[in-house]
Amino acid sequence: MRAGAKVFSALDGDLEPLLACGWLLSMTQGIAVVAGPSERKPGAGPAAHGFMDPHVLRQDRDEEVLLQAAAAHLRRVAAALPGDGALQLVHGPPVGNFDLLLVGRPPFGRPLSSSPAYWNADAQRFKAVLVAPRETPSCLSRSVTILANGPPREPLSFGIARRLFPALASVRLILDHGSSPEQESEWLRLIDCHCPVQVSTVRRTADPQSAALPDAKDDLLIVERPVGVWAAISFEWRLTGLLERTPGAVLFTL
What stretch of H or E contains 145? Predict the structure, then answer.
């Protein structure tokens, strides 16, 4: 990711945590946040995998009312959280490429696929997705949990987080139970965050990553997407459980 990251903050669902999270991102020097309505046409992102949920495209909303509410709240957020970055409200779907897509948290019990902004997100246009925290945060990405299963590999999501949030204070790395000391050492070498790292493991179950989260109280959860086609599909299924168990923000690559 180049310096001067560009973020699109999609206006779906609850505006307060989404816009506040967007403004916090804009406080990092060189980050520009664009907020506006999401793209709603099918044929991109997870929608292109053949798992399109038709109700996503049938959601009716008055975009003008949404934008008016967003503009009013944006002024309140800007007054409360002045920053050095840029935050802009647009009246149409995103144009061009972005380093990050910021989406609102779905209602409890509903999958992230209920968000048109995520379901239509194209990996050619967005490198990663950040799901807003459950509550408006006072800080973001000071303490981080990383979920990483499988063999060591380039931590793409964590690499994005390091560029977006340079002030990391502590990291908790959760690996599969049974990971060898060599695998653990390689993961630590790849992360190389120059801050304290606590390593723990979780026994493989039907959903090993979700099982690890009750003790994870950090403000940002980074999920390194598994490799392989079937692993990618199961990752989409796990997102609901991960979000329900995580009060902080969740970051993963597309």
Answer: strand 143-147
